[in-house]
Amino acid sequence: MFDIFQQGGVIIIIISALSLVAAAIIIERLLFFRKIRVDEDKMISRLKVTLEKGHFDEALSICENNPSPITNLMRVGIEHRSYSPQVIKDMIMAAANSEIPIMERYLSTLGTIAHIAPLLGLLGTVTGNIKAFGVLGNLSSVGDPSLLAQGISEALLTTAAGLIVSIPAIIFYNYLVSKVNHIIIRLENRVNELVLLLRVEA
């Protein structure tokens, strides 16, 4: 492992650091989406039964104990149930908009890593080739193939490392962005349903 860092130079150290950051973001986001995953239809049915009994505190407790975008919206709606339907809808929409940055947290960083990792690999390729050609230009060093090999290995290692980091980062970035978009669309479709549910039970 030390030999790889030594051959790849400072560029491969930077790429390795970025890979750790990308891995941490991916794991954190996957755990986050797993945590907020709920059966929305089952949750709304459960809240509807609770609201029909007029147990608003219990409904709020259900929302707080099952944190997810849909329960967060429902909690806001319950807290403003005495207002007009338009006010309730506006409050729920505002809550939905506040959920978006939470779901998109760190995704821009992951996307940046996915894009700059291959560029850093290309930079390492360029610097490695510069070293290799520098060796060739120095006639007194041509007899030492290890100096030439060092420059070539840096060029190849950084290119490979950049791609190894970039490919999974792009895959997970697209997956996570798609997941966020699906949740946002689903929340938008649920807003009117939540307003009608609250107005019927209020």
Structural overview:
- The protein has 202 residues and is mainly α.
- It has one domain.
- It has helices at 2-35, 40-52, 56-65, 69-79, 85-103, 107-137, 145-201.
- α1 packs antiparallel against α6, α2 packs parallel to α7 (145-201) and α4 (69-79) runs parallel beside α7.
- The radius of gyration is 27 Å and the shape is rod-shaped.
- The model has no long low-confidence stretch (mean pLDDT 82).
Short description:
By secondary structure, this protein is mostly helical. It has helices at 2-35, 40-52, 56-65, 69-79, 85-103, 107-137, 145-201. The protein is built from 7 helices and no strands.
> How many H/I helical runs?
7
User: Could you state the order of secondary-structure elements as H and E?
Assistant: HHHHHHH
Helix % is: over 70%
Structural class: mainly alpha
Largest sheet report: none
Q: How many separate domains make up the residues?
A: 1
Number of strands: 0
> Average pLDDT, to the nearest integer?
82
Global Rg: 27 Å
Strand content: under 5%
Spans of 5+ residues with little confidence (pLDDT < 50)? none
Shape: rod-shaped
User: How far from one another are the termini?
Assistant: 65 Å
